[in-house]
Amino acid sequence: METFKSVPANGNRALTYRPLSSVWERGDGELLEAAFNFYCVIPPEPILDSTYNAGRFWKGSTREVVSMDIDPTYKPMIVGDNREMTGVPSAHFGVVVYDPPHVGPQGRDKSCKKFDVDFGATVECGKRHDWNLSYLYPPFLKQAKRALKANGLLLAKITDMVNNHKSKWPHVDFIRMAEEAGFTVCDLIVKVRTGPMVSSKWENAHHARKRHCFWIICRNSNECERQLSSRK
After folding, report:
1. In the chain, which stretches have pLDDT less than 50?
2. 3-state secondary structure 97-128
3. Architecture of domain 23-195+207-219
């Protein structure tokens, strides 16, 4: 969203242009706050975090967040599947946040290791789903659109993966599916992750290591940008 003040009579333009970078190198919580300030055309609250988990996005935040998770261990306000959102009111939220599972079991055992729980590797991701988790998106998108107010935002964190020796592109699937669900996809922010590239788990590297993920910004509207009467 590019915002300009109108040109005064003396011809000197006073700018209020405050860009948001398409590459982000800080934390998710900071990115979400920046997104609220940059994209919201209605108040973001109440915010529905539909994949709350341990609530790491909101550490130190004073935002009004309704927590939802399928796992009661995390003591969310709403225990339930975000593909059904039973009990979630319609047209109630200014923002819905979505951080779905990013990888599948990839042939490993199905035990509940910390990695599996944190990254969703316990969710079915086999041959009948083309080794992909994108099948999770359409039912969620339908519910997110129902739960959002008009002009509300859906902010989704999506990571591509390699499974069964093939690259999968969930961010492409999500964008297409969001548009099919009636959202306007406004932007794509690349979040760069820090950390070592070397892993002792593998002997050979066949694909580039994923050091980034995507935050996809969608609006529950037919247009992305707010209407500006003084825009030039």
Report:
1. 1-9, 106-107, 109-111, 115, 229-232
2. EECCCCCCCCCCCCCCCHHHHHHCCCCCCCHH
3. 3-Layer(aba) Sandwich (3.40)
